[in-house]
Amino acid sequence: MRTLCVGGGPAGLYTAIALKRQDPGRPVTVWERNPPGVTHGWGVVFWDDLLDEMHRTDPVSARAVHRAAVVWDGQAVQVGRRTPVFLGGSGYAIGRHRLLEVLGDRARALGVDVRPSTDAPDDTLGPEQRPDQPDALVVAADGAGSAVRRRYPDAFGTRIEPGRNRYLWLGTPAPFSTFTFGFVDTGSGWIWCHAYQFDDATSTFIVEAPPATWTALGFDRLDTAACLDTLREVFDPVLHGAPLHTGTATGPSAPWQTFRRVTNERWHHGRIALVGDAAHTTHFAIGSGTRLALGDAIALADAVRDVERADQLPAALASYDARRQREVRPWQDEATRSTAWFEDPVARLEQGDDLRLGWSLWQRRSAAPGWRWYLHRATQHAPLRRVRTSAGAVRRQVRAQRRALPVPMRPPRPTTPPDVPVPPPPVRAGVGSTSRSTPGSEP
Description:
443 residues; alpha/beta; FAD/NAD(P)-binding domain; six-stranded mixed sheet
């Protein structure tokens, strides 16, 4: 069955990779409106569970992503210039440009027709089959503002809820080998950052500000250069003089955004399937957007694996929809709780108890058992923190060794008589059903 992917981000490219791995003869086209190398954002984070699932789907791309990523070990909560409070956890980060390069190269090597700087032809995106495309699956992987999804808002049941805080996605040469949450009382209100390194020379630096602070500091009227100068001064306790960059040409105003929570009652309509941010968004505070996008791609490929005729496609897409919504819903719930924490942290910040603040941040997604409080306290002592970090490194090494083992070959696609319907594939554990290990949780 021919597949048309709209959007060349991680979700679109990995859908193409997963489908080509299942059936090398399947024609797959990916349209991406941006030129090669042009994307939004800096680095993205992920964990071993994603690498495990990628390895089962396509070991080549899993190894390439692993090689290109860096490890961030532990988390730190720093209020002003006070002594940081350390949390557990560890994970990986990779530059978004580099991730797209790895996935794009792999897709092309498998025979995917990747077309950058090209909008999908308007007449290919309807929900119904056409005579010239009798068995075409359309994958809407074109992001939170999906143009494909916007064509049929009632069919998908789309709901978009704007967030409260303003945020700015920046980069910096300051090294953040520890995932750092930095909070600063500016005198005009609190402001904070989420920072982590994603290659040898660059870190992601996300600034988040409540509306009152954002306005009081003049960010609603400062040009980009003045905005970055102000932020560099405000965040000197963690930047130590390092500059900040937007990644785009300096314009009349900095590209501040408000987070949009996108949900859809249905992730399929006719022959169209939604994946990634087109289907759902999760707040950057839990760092799971890329992981969930690739999980969608894998689940969709599983669902349509045995589809050979157009009349089998609706049942397969319904199976994908039900499975993936069930798997993603807990992540969305946790993201909602995490968003609520960051939209109202002032009372906790003004208590002046940084150890309790860190513990509260750790538990923002779900309550932790009581014994973790004692582990949290112990982590503040450098020798015990090193033991905890070493244990995390051993776990990563063990999982990497498991991934070095050969992946069992999947059985060939069965040949099915034309008049015998193919049942939906069985649900198997995917990325969304694995144990969580995001900022604020233990691997």
